[in-house]
Amino acid sequence: MPTYTPHTKQDIDEMLAFIGLASIDELFSQIPEAIKLQRELELPPGLEEPEVRDLLFGLSGRNRDIGRDFICFAGQGAFDREIPSVTRTLSSRSEFVTAYTPYQPEVAQGVLQALFEYQTMIARITGLEISNASLYDGASSLVEGINLSVAAAKNNRVAISAGVHPNWREVAITLAKGSGHEITVIPLKEGVTDFSQLDEGKYGCIVVASPNHLGFLEDLKLAKQYSDEKSALLVQVFDPIAAAVLKSPGENGADVAVGEGQPIGMALSFGGPYLGLFACKESHVRRLPGRLVGETLDSKHKKAYVTTLRSREQDIRREKASSNVCTNQTLMAVTAAIQMAWLGTDGIVEVAKKSANGAHYLVELLKEVGISPIYDTPFLFEVALDLPLDPDLVIERMADEGFLAGITCKSEITRGLEKDVLVVAVTEKRTRHEIESFVITLGKAVQ
Q1: Alpha-carbon distance 27 to 200, whole Å?
Q2: Band of the pLDDT at 326, cuts 50, 70, 90?
Q3: What are residue 176's phi and psi, to 5 degrees?
Q4: Which of 110, 216, 268, 370 lies 20 to 30 Å (CA to CA) from residue 53?
Q5: Residue 373, exposed/middle/buried by CB under 10 A (0-12, 13-18, 19+)?
């Protein structure tokens, strides 16, 4: 028996008997045979530590790396943004990396204060009064925003714009099967939400992303008008960098703001761990999902930090709770707080402007080689391009030339989109030379 196999044959037999199954194969019978490994694992024999390290380094070296092998023009919620050394260094300190759930505030004041500062900065970015101490990622924040809104409006009908990222919409639709929410997807027209397609009924909430997943900017004044007409709460999916130069969700009239925090200090890291941003109006604080850190005074009248409003969670309210989340993404939230504090207001604005200027410069050059955005709709630093070839093929060709060209947006999962498109993103890291090289290479790739 290998050293690190946790279960003996007797353990396995007892567990199978307890759940009434005859074999491990029966336990995993719902997994299609086509995707099962039909052979034994080809594990190497026992190795010494240096040999294991060399083997793992060799395997990891087979990955193609952004920065070393690719120039990244992909986005869709995960952006290749600059992470300064101060963010990496401070967020890697053992006090943060090893911090446990702060149930005992007297020994967790440092982490609690960092989370309180994070909440304060997210509240300021969103223009809303209350932020929680984070959630797992953007998709889980969207689901929790829907849960809060439905509970507050006492209406389980939910309208989600097709401009919300398709993966996030799928998560919301999947979880709605358990919660009983009735979800309607509002199609797009010329890249933005076609609110005229909403029916005459009332809704619990309307969800709109701006910039949306095609990169286009939505008319949030119109979104607010429709949400008021439908007696619905307005949930805005926002980007924390875009929020530096656009009206905040609060200014747009949003009741809830949700988003992905990866752009503020997190590496791409194969898709995680990331950070769910969540803020809302103060009137909804008792329905706020996850953890909330508050500021108070201790017995000596000194400033102190504690977790608060735990009665809203499922461990006390149970079936009456509007959320089953009782935790947060502490280390990622602290990382985001460090990044935002280091950049400051002016720094975040500079990042947003540099990204937007780069994206518009890219589009100007692309038009010279016959490539344009699919619609003449305002965008910021991400935009959907109309290509003469299949975007997946173009991405493959561009990868051979050292570019991660973007993300394919499929027409069948974005209602109102006439064809598959390539969505490209420009961040503050992209230089004029890289942008110009990308345009030349893309012009050749589509021929």
Answers
A1: 47
A2: confident
A3: -65, -20
A4: 268
A5: buried
